[in-house]
Write a structure and sequence with these properties.
This is Histidine-specific methyltransferase SAM-dependent domain-containing protein. By secondary structure, the protein is of the alpha/beta class. Helix content is 39%, strand content 25%. Strand 12 and strand 13 form a beta hairpin. The longest helix has 21 residues. It is globular, with a radius of gyration of 20 Å.
């Protein structure tokens, strides 16, 4: 199914139900990807900086825990601009390690820019960009290479799933790993609820623009007539469940027509569209989830504040 067809299906289903929902996977068109890069540079968005500090200060330890003596593939799921991954790339190049880099991203333009940039930085490094979803990319790699793999899933992207969905994702990912492969996964840890909420509701309004861009994308790709001025972004954090939730809220009673679906959707005043979850974990929860997904923890790397963790996992069973 094409990305546009998937978007159409999600809109048709999500806006027909109560409460209304839209999947966060459709945030990342070209403009959405640019806005997310801006979000990662915001002072409130601590996640990028904490994980960057882990890689900056502990990259040697991370690579030592994996083992880089034999040739391997470094696979970055949802690579984006590879801001943090570049620290590992530089360390590996300095070590003269025998490896290839496979950035995988669903957005083609940022992927092309990254591959071109790395070609200039590291002209002798084999780089293969894959524009695909995670499992399409891993399936292709398993079909075309038997090298050992270090798979990166950074930025707390696992938090975008509910705990049940996260386990399903990890089980599926586990099935793509050979016994000698490893998975390095970035996970945001539970912390001060106020700090978490501000990371998803910044004072500059960039996160709001990022969420509203989803409606702009539907307007563009499905010929809808969302009035973006009549929706506002709202975010809340539940410290009991550890879940940050984002919504787009209708300011008034209104009808939205989606020409590509030949459908009109009614919104009550202050009715919300649920757009995103971001789940935060404790180290105990991570250990229990890994065990249920037939993964064992080789090592845990945290920043100085213990607010973020990069967890090195190996398949077992």
């Amino acid at each position: 199914m094409s990305d546009e067809a998937s978007l159409a299906q999600n809109v048709a289903q999500g806006l027909s139900q109560i409460p209304k929902t839209l999947s966060s996977r459709f945030f990342y068109d070209a403009k959405g990807s640019q806005l997310f890069q801006q979000i990662m540079a915001l002072p409130e968005y601590y996640l990028t900086e904490l994980e960057y500090q882990i890689f900056k200060k502990q990259r040697k330890e991370i690579l030592y825990a994996f083992g880089t003596q034999a040739p391997f593939q470094l696979i970055d799921l949802g690579a984006g601009d590879a801001y943090k991954t570049k620290l590992l790339l530089q360390e590996l190049v300095d070590q003269e390690a025998h490896f290839s880099f496979i950035p995988l991203d669903i957005s083609q333009e940022p992927l092309h820019q990254l591959v071109e940039e790395l070609g200039h930085l590291y002209p002798h490094l084999p780089v293969t960009g894959l524009a695909a979803d995670y499992f399409q990319g891993l399936h292709w790699l398993n079909e075309h290479s038997k090298d050992r793999k270090l798979v990166l899933f950074l930025g707390s992207n696992i938090g975008n799933f509910s705990p049940v969905e996260a386990e399903g994702f990890l089980l599926k990912l586990r099935s793509s790993l050979a016994p000698q492969d490893r998975l390095l996964i970035g996970i945001d840890l539970r912390k001060d609820p106020r700090k978490i909420r501000l990371a998803y509701d910044d004072s500059a309004g960039v996160t709001a623009a990022f969420n509203l861009n989803l409606l702009a994308r539907i307007n563009h790709e499905l010929q809808a007539d969302f009035d973006l001025d009549q929706f506002e972004h709202f975010a809340e954090y539940n410290p009991i469940s550890g879940t940050m939730r984002s919504y787009l809220v209708s300011r008034q009673n209104q009808e939205v027509h989606v020409k590509a679906l030949n459908r009109t959707f009614h919104f009550e005043a202050w009715e919300a569209i649920h757009t995103e979850n971001s789940h935060k974990y404790s180290l105990r929860e991570i250990q229990e989830m890994a065990k249920r997904c037939h993964l064992a923890i080789d090592d845990v790397f945290t920043d100085a504040s213990h607010g973020f963790a990069d967890v090195l996992l190996r398949p077992v069973g």
